[in-house]
Amino acid sequence: MKKYLESLRKELKTNGLNDIDIQDIINDLTEMIHEAMDEGLDEVDIPKKFGHPKDLAKDLAKDETNQSEKSKAKDGLLFSTSDIQMIDVKLYNEDINIVSGENDRIEVYGENVDRKNYKIYKESHCLCLERKNTLAVKFRIFRTSNEKFIIKLPKDYQLKDISLNIKSSDGGLNHIKTNRLTIRSVSGDLKISNVHGEDFQMKSISGDVNIKNTEWITLTISNVSGDFDINHTHVKDNIRINTVSGDVDIFESSGKELDYNAVSGDLIGKEFYPESMALKSISGDIKIKNKDQSKPIEIIRKRSLSGDIDI
Amino acid sequence: MNAQFKRGIVELCVLSELAQVDMYGYQIINRISKHLDVNENTIYPILRRLTKEGYFETYLQESSEGPPRKYYKMTNQGLKRYLKSRDDWDEFIGGVYDILNKGGKKYEEILRKFKKRT
User: Fold this and answer.
1) Which chain B residues have a beta carbon less than 8 Å from that of A32?
2) Residue B39, by phi and psi: left (phi above 0), alpha (psi -120 to 50) or beta?
């Protein structure tokens, strides 16, 4: 037994384990071998039952290194790529942030995520990040908080398409250029700032959305009960907003034509200068307050059943 | 059977054993190797790794037969891991049986189906 343990100690050392771990392992093995010998295990059969020192040491060393790799993957770089034109994200409740960084490659980082639950891959020119559809996800048994993905793009990187399909994830886009931006969200809150592009389509059920410092050619928002806060956003062509009961606030923004449909949500505009507006509301109020009288707004249509319209 | 695959199964068994009651190392090895044809020397490294990952805590307890024993106690995180692993396992093995049973559940049925074709 002594010989076995000595030999194991040597092998553990060769495999690069530290002294504390080695002593811990030797203590465990001493205890277990004692138990086994009390039950009648013969001295010569120790290696057979507990493994040859070489194999056992290798086995233990592999797990120690695996673990450090795993923790690295847990909080850090998960994927790095280049030559990407599209980003396609499908997540459940993990936070997602797409931002511009300092590197010249596109990088996906994870925080507190279990890599095996996700697929991250590149297909033609598309970077895809998906949550695997396991039973545990379907029934939301293992909702752990703080799972977070960050996609970092090179500075001023021009993308063709970003598509976000998320359920309760919170998310953000910051300093991004993309021709198309499509977001479908159920209940996550989103912050979109400093994003420039052509076509932005946003569908949300109950998440709150904050849009700030952005420029588009067309902007389409479809929303059930979340609140929208739109700040410093300039749209060359049409703005379409459909909302059921969520409120929409627009501040210091402009557009060509606003097509607004609401059931009970309120629209409040301050320093908001579209060239024309078509407004329809059932019971929501519409209030637009502008200081600059030199930019009159043409009202194409104005209909409300019971809400107040004040421009 | 594939070693990697066996390792996953042993991990699940270790989690299951410790979900029930605190145990010392040799006890765990004995209880598992009694039921499964696995190399006993694969169990300790798995036990150690799971402990390092925070799924078990350890404490020493006096024993009447000799020196104190190191007991392993499952943490909340360990229980969560067990339930998740078990879920994955159930789903996986369920899928496997869906495939296997398509060809028949019993030997006679499988043979009969096979003979019909030849």
Assistant:
1) 25-26, 29, 44
2) beta
In tens, the pLDDT along B3-27 reads 777 888 999 999 999 999 999 999 9
Using the beta-carbon criterion (under 8 Å), do B66 and A25 form an inter-chain contact?
A: no
Q: Which residues from A are below 8 Å from B84, CB to CB?
A: 136, 141-142
Q: Who's near A309: CB < 8 A, 6+ residues apart?
A: A279, A281, A285, A286, A287, A302
Q: pLDDT tens, A64-113?
A: 655 444 444 445 777 888 888 999 999 988 889 999 988 888 889 888 78
**Residues of B in Cβ contact (< 8 Å) with A67:** 49, 52-53
**Those residues with Cβ within 8 angstroms of residue B53's Cβ, 6 or more apart along the chain or in another chain:** A67
Whole-model pTM: value is: 0.55
Q: Across the interface, do A50 and B45 touch by the CB < 8 Å criterion? A: no
Q: What pLDDT digit, counting tens, does each position of A226-284 carry?
A: 889 999 999 999 999 999 988 999 999 999 999 999 998 899 999 999 999 999 988 88
Q: How far is B105 from chain A (nearest CA, A)?
A: 25
Nearest CA in chain B to A56: B41
ipTM rounded to 2 decimals: 0.83
